[in-house]
Predict the structure.
Amino acid sequence: MASINKGTFSDSNHSVHASSSKNPPQNLKEALILKLSKKEAPFAPKSFDTFGNIAVLEIPKELSKRKKLIGKILLKVHPRFETVCSIESNHKGAFRIQKVKVIAGKKQTLATYKESGCTFLIPLGKVFFSPRLSGERLRIAKEIKKGEIVGCWFSGVGPYPIVFSKHSKMKRAVAIELNPAGHSYAKKNLVLNKVNNVELVKGDVKKVYKKYKRVFDRIAMPLPHTGYEFLKEAFFCIKPKGIIHFYEIIVKGDFDTPTKQIVLSAKESKRRVKLLRSARVRQFSPTKEQVVFDIQMLN
Ligand SMILES: C[S@@+](CC[C@H](N)C(=O)[O-])C[C@H]1O[C@@H](n2cnc3c(N)ncnc32)[C@H](O)[C@@H]1O
């Protein structure tokens, strides 16, 4: 059987073999191998991300002329999806947006996705969203103590503050997002999930942070690649004894580089810190991984 893991659907546990009509293909790769040429078959994708009603997958350039076929086959093997989209670019720009294109099924890019008992509307291609961070959101939610004020910076369509609101006894959260589309869908998602202890701020953390001097018991900073540029602002806003959850992409195993950045930035801000935990969150590329640092303030 295929398995769903943190929004990623992988058929990869299956051994690939030709199926007869008595044994119809059970997974995407197996079904694709029956339709692709011998030359194409080794490139057949075996996993994809699931955003509720929409499946999204990366199609290697060797199969760029077979996108429609791949989409149709995915729908046939997994009929619970309404739409299949292909990924058309890397995450780009300040909004970290990835272009997508509908290749099969209903012509739509608005996903309705469920995670940890919460529902999210996600306009794919207009906002960043990763189902692969669902475990992180729930992990942090379970660490939040009653009465905490939480900063959810770089909040997108609101998955961090909404999961926190539903799975913790926090007092309130302040969610800051630069992308107007992200902010607008975060508003819709608050209503959809009947959440009323989250304040949404549309804007640049660099411009609004001064309003929150020593306000937060905890700050989540899911902005890998450039998050270190906001450590100074986080140290300005976090209370003594507060905790910062800082994300970064590193060359596998190189926890030292971000650790040095954290220590230097804390020193420049005249704050003392203790590294509570550093851990791998997910694979980013064959040579890189996404990691999280939980930083405890000592003053
Ligand atoms: C990696 S995404 C995370 C989104 C969301 N937290 C999630 O997990 O789905 C980073 C987000 O930060 C936003 N962003 C980038 N620079 C920002 C800034 N200076 N101030 C506020 N938001 C920013 C981007 O638009 C994007 O939505």
Remarks:
- The pocket of S-adenosylmethionine is lined by residues 94-96, 128-130, 133, 154-156, 159-160, 176-179, 182, 204-206, 222-223 (CB under 6 Å).
- The chain has two domains: 3-108, 130-297.
- The chain has eight helices and 15 strands.
